[in-house]
Amino acid sequence: GDTHLQWNYLDSGRNDLLRFLSIDTPWQTTGVFWKAETVRKIGYWDEKLASYQDWDYHLRAVLQDDLKYLKVSEGYDTFYRLDDSSASISKSYYSARNILSTVYLVEKFYPLLVRTSALKEDRHGFATFIFHVATMYYKYVDKEKGQSFLKNYLSGLGYSSLFVNSWCSYMMYRRDKAYPKVFRKAFDLVPVIYSSNSILKIKSTCKKAVQ
Predict the structure, then answer these.
(1) Of residues 145, 155, 196, 151, the one with CA closest to residue 170
(2) What confidence score (pLDDT) does residue 41 get?
(3) Which pTM value belongs to this model?
(4) From 122's CA, which of 12, 22, 139, 164 has a CA 20 to 30 Å away?
């Protein structure tokens, strides 16, 4: 099951905070050496989370104004393999518990993130993550709350009402198989209209092929 991909691709040239916000995670748990005082300052993993614990922790670290870190991209010291058991996090990704945990994560960081200069420069990646979470919320947990979640947070990021309502309609009509297929296909126009500013797909550059 091993792949030819290297994680911890650190040299994308993009701001690390923006990469984390758009789920383009530049490094994962085993890729970091910590000083003990840094861990004490940041705190420990958030036990309310069913997944994304490492994302939460590293984002908290990057948001520390006085924390400095060095990125070293030479060599390998860890191989990462997914647990093949039914109890693994990846197998429960679409469970209600996991989705509500991710909703909590957005609610946790949003008040802080909207004040950061990086997010003001590039809100798009975080909006894509919000759309991803809202889609799961709508499809697997609660349709009404999923719609409200998407609308509230996209509006809070400063998008126009037309943009917000277009993507809310896309999520509701295009992704819900309760509606006729011909009707749902019409909403394929939304990503086309907003092709230069689409929030449809998370783009990951955190892995690259090993030569």
Answers:
(1) 151
(2) 92
(3) 0.84
(4) 139
